[in-house]
Design brief:
432 residues; mainly beta; Pnp Oxidase, Chain A; 2 domains; 13-stranded antiparallel sheet; 38% strand; globular
Amino acid sequence: MASSLNLQRNSEVFFSTVDIRGGSVAVAMTPANTWKLEVLAGFAATSTSATQDITSLESGLSPDRSQQRFNTAINPVDWNIQVYMRPTGVETTAALNTTTAKTNTSGNTKPLADWYMWQALTSSTLAAQKRQVAANQVAEQSIWQTGGTLVTKTIAAGTRIHASSSNFAIAPEYFMYFKLDNVVYQVDKATVNSASVDAGIEDIAAVTWSGFGTVMKELVGAPRDIAIATFGGIKNAGGTAVVGNSNAHALTAASAYHPFNTMNVAGTVTTNAFIKNRLSAIEFHHKASATASDEKFTFPVTSMNIEYTNNITYLTPEQISALNEPIGQFSGTRSVTGTTTMYLRSGDLDSAGFLRNISEDARTNSAQTSNANVIIGGATAPYVAFQMDAAQFSFPAVQTEDVISMSVDFMAQETTANKGNGGEVTIVAIKA
């Protein structure tokens, strides 16, 4: 292939359970185990090294003033991407190849275009694996449930529902492919560490994904041709560009990936929806004391953010005379936090009343009598809602600008019945 510049505009990102560098062939990549992410500009994947500098400094007229630098270890790969939140309409779990309303041919509930990213963030269950009864067939495994919901707690297996736990010690590992125009990189054992949903009222709802991997290597030779056969591009030998063969209909098609912008819903390929942040809303519940009546506060906001973080850390050996690589990772404390900004409006059940309620609460923790529902896109579909059944609110801060505003931070916690079992947040995605 002739030398050429590589442009961000022509770049693509894929998420998969298939390891090309490990010897997988092109036909191993199917829409059931490989998904395209329609990323926005500014995505990144970096692989850096840890270094050690050794210096010497002697006295005398001709001292040794030398310095040497050693690469001692490869740091975990650090990647981040941003995609739009796009509801699909696949909100009902069903049998395979069902064509009734809100179903998909896989039988899984997949209400968001990036449903597999949310699963990799919140669950121990891989989004795809080989079937036990037919080793060569690959099946999707969605933990999203009928109604377009995902709950971050332990879930038992049921009919078309896959077992899941959000309290995992080791994050599930995937493989990410960054096709930077004509150069393809594979990130091994990629983990999803955090998701940040920003909802500025002048924007389209988007989520920023970030995570890690063990190593990032360029695919060359036969492995690169395998990637190109699936993703599209120019083969090693040059010639005609190969068109990427995404397949929105049959999940058993060989050498294909599932697209991001469309979804097979009830047997028909439909376009996934965008969400307008201007329509977003919040609903806070808070009791002024443990014995007080519940009060519901609803008011428009000027911005909001939800962040879910696994706090993943990696282990890397420290052997001398070797370039050490990460050997594994562990999840840390799960953190689900949010912040909202709104105008200060008078009224007992408006923002001023909420500020008064919080500031007059003498309890050190009121999470079990408080909850928050952040609805990205508003109450009319399409929207994505984040329901936190136990939320601890910080004291709201007032900003004296041209229009007086206030902001409040909150943290989702486990409910009393679920301590140690997760359950901080329920995500609901609805298209129509």
